[in-house]
Design brief:
The chain is an alpha/beta fold. The protein folds into 2 domains: 194 residues, Glycogen Phosphorylase B (Rossmann fold); 128 residues, Glycogen Phosphorylase B (Rossmann fold, 3-Layer(aba) Sandwich), CATH 3.40.50. Helix content is 45%, strand content 15%. The strands form 2 sheets. Strands 3-2-1-4-5-6-7 form a 7-stranded parallel beta sheet, sandwiched between helices. A 6-stranded parallel beta sheet has the order 10-9-8-11-12-13, with helices on both faces. Helix 1 packs across helix 15, helix 4 runs parallel beside helix 5 and helix 9 runs parallel beside helix 14. The structure holds uridine-diphosphate-N-acetylglucosamine. Uridine-diphosphate-N-acetylglucosamine binds next to helix 1, helix 5 and helix 10.
């Protein structure tokens, strides 16, 4: 069986790593890794390949940045040629980035089977480009591999046949469990207690007023707790646009994007996390570190119902109040959801290798 994995952006890398590793151990499986190049800076891509032990991509498309239409179209045009050159039995796509939807569309039209890892997540907010990507990919996928049972329910409501849906657990947690012992704090001036901050959602950073409001609130909070803020390239550009300069004060510590092991160590040791990332909501839930999410909604509600996550939206007064509660020791700790234990990729491999022998059943379902 030939399996082609498609990755493109930073959050894909920690998801593909464990699936590649497990499938490598299975007999009769040949794998190809294709990187679209959606994320191309060394600190957004290469360092993850090194730290996660992902082999160099077999195919690199070098697509780079552009508008959503340009980026998606570029991946589609180049991916079509690549996938036709060596038609795989399965294409595995990960998460919700533009590369994911582009590859899924190409495969659906070529009738190449698609498995979507991290299927079924819904924020029900179509202002988010990732939500549109999730909706489209899940409609096109032949096999929908969900991280938690709420994903199954979302998909069934959308009319996806139950026999295509499998709750396998969270592959990102597979990577976390494997690499937590190697997590290492970055060599930066950290104080005893600090909060980790990450921001990159267009809804927070693309609108100058909302970005200014968030940054000034965080700067205010840094009087009481050091803010450690690795800045995403999108956010760096927007900060420059509004004339925000790097504070000299180490209590508001701006950093370049970090590697996986450094980011993991910061999450583990943080007193609080303030973020708009999807993955960090999940990782903080696993680690039991209180997480304040600067979004009105989340496609990962299980991190709220069971985990340590809390939605703040854009209400900066609420951020201050909840941040204070954490500093006083009454932050949310939660518990770890079912199947977030490090074996999701084993379950994916079992399904894929088992599914191969029941091909006709799947085709009927499709
Ligand atoms: C993308 C994903 C998002 C994910 C995020 C994590 C989509 C729609 N969005 O958002 O789901 O959470 O990645 O990082 O796919 N840039 C660089 N260097 C890079 C990559 C990007 O400078 O290595 C710049 C680009 O020029 C662009 C901006 O950062 O201006 C945003 O990159 P893009 O890939 O469009 O989306 P992200 O905001 O990173």
């Amino acid at each position: 069986m030939h399996i082609l994995h498609v990755v493109g952006a930073r959050p894909n890398f920690m998801k593909v790593a464990p699936v590649l590793r497990v499938l490598q151990q299975r007999d009769g499986v040949r794998q190809t890794l294709l990187h679209t190049g959606q994320h191309y800076d060394a600190n957004m891509s290469d360092i993850f390949f090194q730290q996660l032990g992902i082999p160099a991509p077999d195919v690199f498309l070098g697509v780079g940045s552009g508008s959503h239409a340009q980026q998606t179209a570029q991946v589609m045009m180049q991916f079509e040629k690549a996938v036709l050159a060596d038609r795989p039995d399965w294409v595995l796509v990960y998460g919700d980035v533009n590369s994911t939807v582009a590859a899924a569309l190409v495969c659906a039209k070529l009738r190449i089977k698609i498995a979507h890892v991290e299927a079924g997540l819904r924020s029900y907010d179509r202002e988010m480009p990732e939500e549109l990507n999730r909706l489209v990919v899940d409609q096109l996928a032949d096999l929908l591999l969900t991280p938690s049972i709420d994903g199954d329910a979302n998909l069934e409501r959308e009319g996806i046949p139950a026999n295509r849906i499998h709750c396998v657990g969270n592959v990102m947690i597979d990577t976390l469990v494997r690499l937590l012992p190697q997590a290492k704090l970055p060599d930066v001036p950290l104080q005893e207690s600090f909060a980790l901050v990450t921001l990159h959602r267009p809804s927070n950073v693309d609108e100058p007023e909302s970005l200014k409001k968030i940054l000034s609130t965080l700067q205010g909070l840094s009087d009481r707790c050091q803010m450690v803020f690795p800045v995403h390239p999108r956010t760096r550009t927007r900060m420059a646009d509004i004339g925000f300069t790097k504070p000299a004060d180490e209590r508001f510590l701006l950093l370049e994007p970090l590697g996986y092991l450094e980011c993991l160590a910061l999450q583990k040791h943080a007193t609080a996390i303030v973020t708009d990332s999807g993955g960090i909501q999940e990782e903080s839930t696993y680690l039991g570190v209180p997480c304040l999410t600067l979004r009105e909604n989340t496609e990962r509600p299980i991190t709220i119902h069971e985990g340590s996550n809390q939605l703040i939206g854009t209400d900066m007064d609420k951020l201050k109040v909840e941040f204070d509660k954490i500093l006083c020791g009454s932050g949310k700790r939660g518990r770890c959801p079912a199947l977030w234990e490090g074996r999701a990729s084993e379950r994916i491999a079992d399904i894929l290798t088992g599914v191969q022998t029941q091909k006709s059943g799947l085709r009927r379902a499709a």
